[in-house]
Amino acid sequence: MSDPVLRIDHLTMQFGGVIAVDDFSMVVNPGELVALIGPNGAGKTTAFNAVTGVYTPTSGTVTLLGHNITGLRPDQITGMGIARTFQNIRLFSSMTVFENVLTAHHLRRTSNLLSATFRLNGAEERQMRKDTEELLRRVDLYDLRDEMATSLPYGKQRLLEIVRALATKPKLLLLDEPAAGMNPQETDELGDFIRRIRDEFNLSIFIIEHHMNLVMRISDRIYVIEFGKQIAEGVPSEIQNNQAVIDAYLGGGDEL
Amino acid sequence: MFNTVFPYLLSGISVGGQYALIAIGYTMVYGILRLINFAHGDVFMVAGIIMVYMAASGVPLLVCIPLVLLLTSLIGFAIERIAYKPLRTAPRMSVMISAIGVSYTLQNLVLYITGGLNQIYPTIPFISGSVTIGPATTKVVTVVTPILTIVLVFALVQLINHTKVGMAMRAVSKDFETSQLMGININRVISTTFVIGSFLAGVGSMLYFTNYTTVIQTSGAMPGLKAFVAAVFGGIGSIPGAVVGAFIIGIAENIIKGLDIILFKAGLIAKPMGLATFSDAFTFALLIVILAVKPTGLFGEKTIDKV
Amino acid sequence: MAKKKWDSASVLSALVILCLYAAVFIAEQLIPPTSMLFTVLKKGATYALVAVSMNLLNGFTGIFSLGQAGFMLIGAYTYAIFTVPIAQRAIVYQYYNGGVVQFTLPVFAAMLLAGLVAALFALLIGLPVLRLKSDYLAIATLGFAEIIRTVFQWDKLGPVTNGSNMLRLFPTFNDFNLRNAQGEITVYLSTLVPLLISGVCIAVIVLLINSTFGRALRAIKDDEIAAEAMGIRLSSHKQMAFCVSSFFAGIGGAMLAMYQTTVQAKSFTTAMTYEILLIVVIGGIGSVTGSCLSSFLFVACSEWWLRFLDQKQVIGGFEVPLLRNGFRLVVFSIIIMIVVLFFRQGIMGTRELPDLFRKRRSPAKGGEGK
Fold first, then answer.
1. How confident is the model at residue C361 (pLDDT cuts 50, 70, 90)?
2. Is residue B243 part of a domain?
3. Taking a C-beta distance cutoff of 8 angstroms, is the pair A13, A47 a contact?
4. What domains, with CATH codes, occur in chain A?
5. Chain C residue numbers touching A45 (CB-CB < 8 A)
6. What is the interface size between A and C, counted as CB pairs within 8 Å?
7. How many domains does chain B have?
8. Is the ipTM of this complex over 0.85?
9. CB atoms within 10 A of CB B295
10. Which A residues in the span 81-110 are in contact with B, Cβ-Cβ below 8 Å?
11. For chain B, where are the E strands, in sequence order?
């Protein structure tokens, strides 16, 4: 069996006296769609941030396709093939839809400051623009390309954030509550979209989500954490019937 | 050796106290609004100018002193209401630019009024006299400053820890939005902060200009910047930090002013190096080092950004 | 943007700029060189370059730096030190036996060097400073400018910097005029050349802003965390913007030296940085065109149009109150506060010259040329 795409070993994240993630381990296999769920404040986003380099883990290791990426900077980790979206949308607000996606191509550049400024990188720039156009066409955002990113409807902004992450050509995509604030119909469409990009772009996907219907419908496997600790792991049907998970959610006041 | 160093040390402590009184204004405003009030040093200068003009118009000094403090507090209050309050929801850069604009305006106003000439600061009888301590002869103000500073800081800390408005201030500086939700009148707290800060800058200006004797429109810029560095050095938002930082900077700066003579008398250098030039530069070098090594300063709290 | 590179709005903008240059050239041949118009254009060209370089940081990268006067000082000194004619060095460096630098560089080489030295300082100072958050960075860069000002006046450096004495007798804008064998001026270029230098430099900045690196910088300004997640290395990109900005501030400093005909460290004060910042704000943070327009407006008002405010004016036997030395600056300050408080977009917001010729606003594209 090949290397897992992502492997987290005994990850612990501590802030002062608070342990946000406690000895958490997991894997994402190639092509897999894995969800991380848990009540609010369980440490899900913290785990994401530790994987993407926003935080340096207190202890434990993160491995991407056999390379240890623990403690690298976020931009290095993105360069190695992990892209992410954010819980609270973080689009580039002064840019159009097109420019948002175009900017994500910057990290694959071969030009330097001088050659780019004096337009000696024409071929590369054209390629970036062509790739961006193509990507926007594939996800049906092409007609909106000249709109300001932040003027899009909420659902489209979420979509654009995913597309922008795709433009960095990742091997693993991390989605932090992509369905937050969406209505049921939009959520359904998002589910289809996530599966579609997984297949079309040969991705593995690691998702945090609160919409249980969505999680159960699209995930291959699910990890559940509470207070930073893993309380369950398995395929959706197993998780749905897991007593510890039900307790955690009833206790946490969330509906399952 | 001691005889050479002592006078510099003494004036360092004195200037340090004056910086401390300004630095408190910076640190309190930063604690609550997260704003570097670039105009604070100019408020300090304006307090000096008001004193000059008031004394010249024949108002007795004993009346001048409280009146100047009152007017300075009012100016602080007015600046906040006019230039910062309308920008409460604007990006931080806008507020900072507004502060720079206020600083520019105050300096130009004073330039216009004074014609850009040095104004002689009136002699405040009690603190202008001379006194001899050990090997040094100095003005009384040099001795009065640190004592007055400590007394005022003590009073301020009592105010913050034991009164209702003090409690509100602490709450607002901990969490702006939540305290608003809890029914604290944010605008009143902010105004109070500006009034206190300006009042202390007013006191500082009396001590400082008694020492330096002249005021001009740019007089506030340097002490203002140094007081800010002191606030950062001590950990911005912390009042004891600002005071400690101010004393350290005041002392270091004065020692450097006398470094040529000190080193020469100690036999370490053969001729003067012109090191006194660096007394200002030192403060900023210290700032850059502090920010690079420990951005939260001596007493500052670390904050974690939420993603 | 994705379709064709030169749309009609860009072409029109280029034409406008070309016409302006032509107009300046013609005016310079016809109008006496002592006219205030040329003073304003020369100083305006200098300030425009410095303002745009500051805008690159404050408006396009989101770095709130207040070190511009320091980098200008470095540029001005570098230029002056290497261009004072050898024959004049004994006079200029009279207290330092003619100084240690005993050669001169051609004017343009010295200007380039001025930029490079400023960029080098930026590289060094950027390492500790650029990691800081917005307001700390502002105060640290301000402090840096103050340190530079002190160091350049240090007596021990006198053989190079002339200590606290003035540097003078180096080539100025007037040396760009073409002369015949008798020394009479045949073609006036003393205004056009500075405008061209400034224009070329600003054009380079615009090219940078519209390149993939410029997009990365704007991404950093919009959202550092998202930019980093897109693979943009914050430290190196900020460092790059800081060095480029300082490079052009250094050239701007050299131009200021040429405009003033003398250089003295003590004039590069914090107030100078504030003035440039206010120019950027009035023009619109994030608009190159705005910075240029407001530089010329600012200089014109302070040197020319509002001068009357500084003198007694008698209209029909009635002496207008308040008018005396310094009133101009008060009026100025009030205008600035009004802009800061009520017109935060400034003149241009984030629009550029070509946007003015387009019907629908398509923001953040920027124009070629100035």
1. very low
2. no
3. yes
4. 1-81+170-256 (3.40.50.300), 93-168 (no CATH)
5. none
6. 115
7. 1
8. yes
9. 17
10. 86
11. 119-120, 130-133, 136-139, 214-215
